[in-house]
Request: fold
Amino acid sequence: MRVGKPARRAPSDEDRAELPLVNDGDLDLTFIGSGGAFSKRFFQNNILVVKGSTHLLVDCGSRTPEALSLLGLSVGMIRNYLITHTHADHIGGLEEVMLVNRYSFKRKTTMIITDKLRKALWSMSLRGGAAFNEEHKGASLEFADFWDSLVPTRVRGGERELSETRLGELDILLFRTKHIPDSAPDWRSSFPSYGLILDRRILFTSDTRFDPEMVLGLDKAYRLEAIFHDCQFFKGGVHASLDELATLPVRIRRKTWLMHYGDKVEDFSAKIAKLEFAGLAEQWKTYSFKRIDN
Ligand SMILES: [Zn+2]
Ligand SMILES: [Zn+2]
Reply:
């Protein structure tokens, strides 16, 4: 059965003791953080997805290990990661993930990532902190010494670069977004950054500038149940602004939760309600979508 709106659940003391990594088969998205890159109130906009016995952390920012710890989790307990792009609020916690798993648990961890992004992530960001801690087979360490890559398969055809993969019970589509630089006219000319669609039901933009063709095109193709869209409270920069998102049709706004926002949410909450957005996605809340039995 499809549901129009997700049920929200505030974390109880029990959840805080240990946020579960398994559930009864619903599609659960929990915001480990919901804030923008420099937020001091809401941690960083990374989500934990759980469905049945499958779990996946989407992005792992510099403050995410701390946020996980407050929920009773640790980076060592997370076995599957998906990385959307290389800003520190999405990857800054990965060095801890790599070192803890290699030296404490002596194992690799799974990362869902495209070839294009993996090369940039390793050579431009992770290599400096991870490659030179030991000599391995007479050389420095490589990405594959820390990670088992799950590389999505490109879906041919269509306007926008799209790839798909499956992790346990979870179906994942990755599409390119228009995030950086701020001058790039479209996703093609942007540095690799990705949004995702979970189970062909839920859109999570991660970081993108306003791109109505993307939202409307994906909504048309997948008849989305809910959209989680990044939102900044000013114009310019590299995210969709509230004023730009306000121009989306009301049928879209009503199922759109705003995320990756700045600390001054109280100044904008009345405007967000007036525009009939679904609301602000809240840190540590679980957005649950009922399982569909075919
Ligand atoms: Zn970000
Ligand atoms: Zn970003």
User: Anything to note?
Assistant: The mean pLDDT is 94. Residues 37, 45, 87, 89-90, 207, 260 surround zinc ion (ligand 1) (CB under 6 Å). Residues 166 and 172 are 6 Å apart (CA to CA).
